[in-house]
């Protein structure tokens, strides 16, 4: 069972947390309550029993308090800052389209002719083996002068589900960052929030760190560097998402977090492990992944009382390996080999899920609603 001491050790106050804390808890909690909405009954979930269930307010990587049957509109897009909470990823990058789809904004800095995430979705959607392990890809579109891709809303049809977002890989930055000497104040601030002693004297003086420095600091401080994955966020039914998991590093901490996600649900554990093994099999056979590095991608896992699903998401930093070289996704990274450790991490994630000790029958599952207390 997870203790408050455990969470006190791993939990880190974030801006998001400060935002929640400044609000009335009761009013905030209402944002996660269920609202019935029309449902598309043809989701491409893995080991699921599709059935027409009331939709949740919890949406694909996001939770919103808006009516989801309306098409994406100015009102929906503009209101994201006050009404949206994303479980992980760049704030404001997702908006509900609906019903059953979301729009994802093109990554900042990407040119229309260089849109790796769109290209990756298109390539994987065209592959009979890979199309089942990603959200359904519909189209690219332009709206209000910005480019989006429209994707299946993975949460559509789940009932108040358990959700976990796991960032994959031992390396979470592109190799270009190695030569990027630009030091950033925002990353320094984030670093200090996690560990005031982490910056060097020079970095303290400059009040800035490079992106490479920050990303490697995050990898080392979390489980990314050692385990090849880190849990970015967990959402349990009826509770606000837990996103302050930056210090979850050791195998026992990962196991405890996974146990909290699974509760006593052995059925979910078995179905999720089977689905992840299926994703691994498809990934290993895929020609696309032999020739591409897949940096900063996530595995997104959802289950409720009836259905289980897991998908590969986030391809903004997927790149073809230059010079026709191959990657195996398990070898250690060296500058120039483009390995990112995705499969190294997936092996360990599957092991963690298979071996996490769940609360025994009759034993109380951890129920702390707020990890920071
Ligand atoms: C961010 C996280 C993102 C990364 C972002 C980091 O750190 O690693 O994946 O975006 O870089 O700040 P944290 O999780 O600690 O908030 P990319 O994956 O797009 O590089 P950014 O600040 O340059 O957007």
UniProtKB/TrEMBL annotation:
Region annotation (Disordered) ranges: 31-52
One Pfam family this sequence matches: IPK
Enzyme class per UniProt: transferase
Keywords, alphabetical: Kinase, Transferase
GO terms (BP aspect): inositol phosphate biosynthetic process; phosphatidylinositol phosphate biosynthetic process
GO terms assigned for molecular function: inositol hexakisphosphate kinase activity
EC number: 2.7.-.-
Cellular component terms (Gene Ontology): cytoplasm; nucleus
Protein name, UniProt field: Kinase
């Amino acid at each position: 069972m997870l203790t408050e001491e455990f969470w006190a050790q791993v939990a880190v106050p974030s801006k998001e947390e400060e935002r929640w804390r400044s609000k009335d808890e009761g009013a905030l909690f209402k944002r996660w309550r269920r609202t019935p909405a029309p449902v598309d009954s043809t989701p491409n979930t893995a080991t699921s029993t599709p059935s027409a269930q009331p939709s949740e307010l919890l949406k694909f990587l996001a939770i919103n308090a808006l009516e989801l049957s309306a098409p994406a509109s100015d009102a929906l897009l503009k209101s994201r800052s006050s009404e949206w909470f994303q479980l992980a990823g760049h704030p404001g990058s997702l908006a509900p389209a609906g019903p059953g789809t979301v729009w994802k904004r093109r990554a900042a800095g990407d040119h229309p002719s260089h849109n790796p995430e769109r290209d990756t979705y298109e390539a994987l959607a065209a592959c009979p083996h890979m199309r089942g392990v990603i959200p359904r890809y519909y189209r690219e579109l332009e709206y209000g002068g910005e480019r989006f891709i429209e994707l299946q809303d993975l949460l559509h049809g789940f009932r108040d589900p358990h959700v976990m977002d796991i960032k994959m890989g031992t390396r979470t930055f592109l190799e270009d960052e190695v030569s990027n000497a630009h030091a950033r104040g925002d990353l320094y601030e984030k670093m200090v929030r996690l560990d005031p002693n982490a910056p060097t004297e020079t970095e303290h003086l400059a009040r800035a760190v490079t992106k490479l420095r920050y990303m490697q600091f995050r990898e080392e401080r979390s489980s990314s560097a050692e385990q090849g994955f880190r849990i970015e966020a967990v959402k349990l039914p009826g509770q606000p998402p837990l996103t302050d998991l930056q210090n979850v590093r050791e195998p026992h901490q990962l196991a405890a977090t996974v146990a909290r996600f699974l509760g006593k649900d052995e059925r979910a554990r078995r179905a999720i492990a089977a689905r992840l093994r299926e994703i691994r099999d498809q990934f290993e056979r895929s020609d696309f992944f032999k020739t591409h590095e897949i940096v900063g991608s996530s595995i997104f896992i959802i289950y409720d009382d009836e259905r289980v699903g897991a998908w590969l998401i986030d391809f903004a930093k997927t790149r073809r390996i230059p010079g026709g070289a191959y990657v195996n996704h398990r070898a250690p990274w060296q500058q120039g080999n483009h390995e990112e450790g995705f499969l190294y991490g997936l092996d360990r994630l599957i092991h963690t899920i298979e071996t996490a000790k769940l609360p025994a029958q009759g034993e109380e599952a951890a129920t702390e609603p707020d990890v920071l207390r």
